[in-house]
Amino acid sequence: MKAAVLHEFDEKLTAKEFVKFEDVTDPKISRPMDVIVRIGGAGVCRTDLHIVEGIWRSKVDVKLPYIMGHENAGWVEAIGPGVEGVKVGDSVICHPLVTSGHCLACRRGNDMHALDSAFPGINANGGYAQYLLTGQRSLIKLPKSLAPKDVAPYTDAGLTAYRAAKKASRHLLPGEYVAVIGAGGLGHIGIQVLAALCAAEIVVIDRADQSLELAKKCGAHHVVKADGNEVEAVLGLTGGRGAEAVIDFVGEGDAIAKGLSITANGGYYYIVGYGGKIDIPTIDMITSEKTIVGNLVGTYAELVELMALADRGLVELHTKEYRLSQANDALHDLHHGRIHGRAVLIP
């Protein structure tokens, strides 16, 4: 099969080619619950750029060369002898974790914390290819209204944004505020989820005018340009108290400090983007009673819930399509801020 393969890390992201488009061995079924999916769409994520940079080397044991791509959807191509519930030809979206289902975290539904798991595109070969090896427990059959190429990024970007927005929606009340930092690939999904699940006023902060326009279309009630005065702008909107919830889809640069500064006392700061560090004096944590919440992907059930919103038209992905052979173009466009929404590779 054809695949876009990562052969070496590039810490400064200066190479003309991050991956090579080449022939590789087809995946094979070796266990009863294995499933091979013919890829209909593979999302291109900023995490992929972090993988190219080598940031994930301290977290996972990956030997190069390998295939990135952890946001995948397509059609069932082959199944192991123990597989039930899906058949060859079914259109499916893949939860990003492949797990056995036996450990306590799995039994509680928290597959992202499973003791024994594979994460295609992170610690195993992923979907920047024509075919993907996954498992039955990871598959959700798609309704006829949703095509694989249109929903693939929901499996990480959408699911992570949904998980954070769902957490926030559970305590946000009418008359309160939620601030979203970053209206890009994850942020534009999170805005729509917030609009669908809660009645708080949604304030979106971004530095790009195009992203702010997208935020308005996605349901933002207020948009604020990140021009150095965004903290004052948000505090002005909220009567000086700040937002009861802040969801930070950037997580680097000055976004963290500003995000915490606009979180109201007793409020919640949800960190989704990464690359930076949280540095806050303990006395400030005590006196403000702010809560900092990390967010890692989401559960299988949450991906089912997100597909239900998408099926009803309450959440819509804004995507830019590339051929699999154009993976380097997609990665460079993402790196240089030329994608507003999500990029999808199509074999």
Automatic annotation (TrEMBL):
<dbReference type="InterPro" id="IPR002328">
    <property type="entry name" value="ADH_Zn_CS"/>
</dbReference>
<keyword id="KW-0479">Metal-binding</keyword>
<dbReference type="Pfam" id="PF08240">
    <property type="entry name" value="ADH_N"/>
</dbReference>
<dbReference type="GO" id="GO:0008270">
    <property type="term" value="F:zinc ion binding"/>
</dbReference>
<dbReference type="InterPro" id="IPR036291">
    <property type="entry name" value="NAD(P)-bd_dom_sf"/>
</dbReference>
<dbReference type="InterPro" id="IPR013154">
    <property type="entry name" value="ADH-like_N"/>
</dbReference>
<keyword id="KW-0862">Zinc</keyword>
<protein>
    <recommendedName>
        <fullName>alcohol dehydrogenase</fullName>
        <ecNumber>1.1.1.1</ecNumber>
    </recommendedName>
</protein>
<comment type="similarity">
    <text>Belongs to the zinc-containing alcohol dehydrogenase family.</text>
</comment>
<feature type="domain" description="Enoyl reductase (ER)">
    <location>
        <begin position="14"/>
        <end position="345"/>
    </location>
</feature>
<dbReference type="InterPro" id="IPR011032">
    <property type="entry name" value="GroES-like_sf"/>
</dbReference>
<dbReference type="Pfam" id="PF00107">
    <property type="entry name" value="ADH_zinc_N"/>
</dbReference>
<dbReference type="InterPro" id="IPR020843">
    <property type="entry name" value="ER"/>
</dbReference>
<keyword id="KW-0560">Oxidoreductase</keyword>
<dbReference type="InterPro" id="IPR013149">
    <property type="entry name" value="ADH-like_C"/>
</dbReference>
<dbReference type="GO" id="GO:0004022">
    <property type="term" value="F:alcohol dehydrogenase (NAD+) activity"/>
</dbReference>
